[in-house]
């Protein structure tokens, strides 16, 4: 029995982990998704919709080339965009099958996730370009669009210099560089439906791989995750507890598993906190809060609740509980029912639910 409790008539996502991430079974970070929309954008005509505007959803028939200049004046383009938006919304309702609950979703203008993918060679300063090479090469394109300005801010460049110094001193840092942004590749910006916030990566060998609470296969399941499995069993009695703590199957379904700090010095918890990562991950949360809608935020423990204090509760569902750590889980985490409440909320808003039991199959 799938643990998503998908209601009859709900169309489930038809992809599997191996469709996108062939190396998933080995515990390796998935390869970066190819951004197919980039080629289409680059082939657009000179009069195409500028960044930040909605693209035209249907071509107008019978528009002679002689009228092209007039049709592309600012006034004409604004009027056309307004008419196109209305027509697209109407078409959505008309095309909906009988007995289907139609949920009108507002597409945000100036949504950075729809902008062209920035290129590393656009950075003029060679030193800055080298500092940000990892971000440009390993962030998912959708998140790189969102965070392109953020990573050029002074605080972030200072953070990158600090990480360079750690390496120069011979300090071992977790996770390895290629996995620091794996959360972005498992869960691209437009696909976020749930957010789980952690604090910093596991600091022992071969544990951290870029997803909060998750560890690589072959590594003993951490105590906090063991307690999460217990809570899942209470929400879904058919949940089959896996013999590992590898949660990539959740992330691939739209669960953004984000730590507040994305790196840590080996065997030294919180050693990279207050170095700039918190401001960076605040920008990630801010994007989801402002540009996505009807997202479930799971805030476990006072640290996560403080970090998520600015989330718009009218627009999203915010679920709070004590941390699943053995030190606090007995104070209400086991019976918080957050996994079931998450799916109830997603289903009520016409969104695919999370198959929490998928991790048992991977």
Automatic annotation (TrEMBL):
InterPro entries on file: UDG_fam1 (IPR002043), Ura-DNA_Glyclase_AS (IPR018085), Uracil-DNA_glycosylase-like (IPR005122), Uracil-DNA_glycosylase-like_sf (IPR036895)
PROSITE patterns, from UniProt?
Answer: U_DNA_GLYCOSYLASE
Identify the Gene3D superfamilies for this entry: Uracil-DNA glycosylase-like domain (3.40.470.10)
What reaction does this catalyse? Answer: Hydrolyzes single-stranded DNA or mismatched double-stranded DNA and polynucleotides, releasing free uracil
Q: State any GO BP term from the record.
A: base-excision repair, AP site formation via deaminated base removal
> Where does this one sit in the cell?
Mitochondrion; Nucleus
Q: Where is the active site?
A: 200 (proton acceptor)
Domain annotation Uracil-DNA glycosylase-like: ranges: 185-346
The cellular component terms of Gene Ontology attached to this UniProt record, alphabetical and capped at eight, are: mitochondrion; nucleus
- Keyword terms: DNA damage, DNA repair, Glycosidase, Hydrolase, Mitochondrion, Nucleus
CDD domains on file: UDG-F1-like (cd10027)
Q: Where is this region: Disordered?
A: 1-67
EC nos:
3.2.2.27
Q: Which residues cross the membrane?
A: none
Any Pfam family the entry gives: UDG
MF term (GO), any? uracil DNA N-glycosylase activity
- HAMAP family hit by this protein: UDG (MF_00148)
Role played: Excises uracil residues from the DNA which can arise as a result of misincorporation of dUMP residues by DNA polymerase or due to deamination of cytosine.
Q: Which family does it belong to?
A: Belongs to the uracil-DNA glycosylase (UDG) superfamily. UNG family.
What is the name of the protein in this document? Answer: Uracil-DNA glycosylase
Task: Please report the organism this UniProt entry assigns to the protein.
Answer: Tieghemiomyces parasiticus
Gene symbol of the encoding locus: UNG1_1
């Amino acid at each position: 029995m799938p643990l998503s409790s998908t209601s009859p008539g709900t169309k489930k996502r038809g992809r599997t982990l191996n469709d996108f991430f062939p190396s998933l079974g080995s515990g390796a970070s998935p390869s970066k998704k190819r951004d197919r929309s980039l080629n289409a954008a680059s082939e657009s005509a000179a009069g195409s919709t500028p960044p930040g505007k909605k693209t035209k959803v249907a071509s107008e028939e019978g528009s002679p080339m002689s009228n092209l200049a007039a049709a592309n004046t600012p006034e004409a383009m604004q009027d056309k965009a307004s008419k196109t938006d209305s027509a697209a919304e109407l078409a959505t309702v008309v095309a909906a099958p009988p007995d289907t609950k139609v949920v009108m979703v507002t597409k945000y203008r100036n949504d950075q996730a729809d902008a062209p993918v920035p290129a590393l060679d656009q950075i003029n300063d060679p030193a800055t370009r080298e500092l940000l090479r990892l971000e440009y090469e390993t962030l998912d394109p959708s998140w790189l669009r969102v965070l392109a300005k953020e990573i050029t801010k002074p605080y972030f460049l200072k953070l990158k210099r600090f990480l360079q110094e750690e390496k120069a001193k011979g300090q071992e840092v977790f996770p390895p560089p290629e996995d620091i942004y794996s959360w972005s590749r498992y869960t691209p910006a437009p696909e976020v439906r749930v957010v789980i916030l952690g604090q910093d990566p596991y600091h022992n060998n071969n544990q951290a791989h870029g997803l909060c609470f998750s560890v690589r296969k072959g590594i003993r399941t951490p105590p906090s995750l063991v307690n999460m499995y217990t809570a899942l069993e209470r929400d879904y009695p058919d949940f089959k507890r896996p013999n590992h703590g590898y949660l990539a199957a959740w992330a691939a379904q739209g669960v953004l598993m984000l730590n507040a700090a994305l790196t840590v010095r080996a065997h030294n918890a919180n050693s990279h906190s207050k170095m700039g990562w918190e401001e960076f991950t605040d920008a990630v949360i801010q994007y989801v809060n402002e540009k996505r809608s009807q997202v479930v935020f799971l805030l476990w423990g006072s640290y996560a609740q403080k970090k998520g204090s600015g989330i718009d509760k009218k627009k999203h569902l915010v679920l709070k509980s004590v941390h699943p750590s053995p030190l606090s889980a007995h104070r209400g985490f086991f019976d918080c029912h957050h996994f079931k409440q998450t799916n109830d909320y997603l289903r009520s808003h016409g969104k695919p639910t999370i198959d929490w039991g998928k991790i048992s199959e991977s």
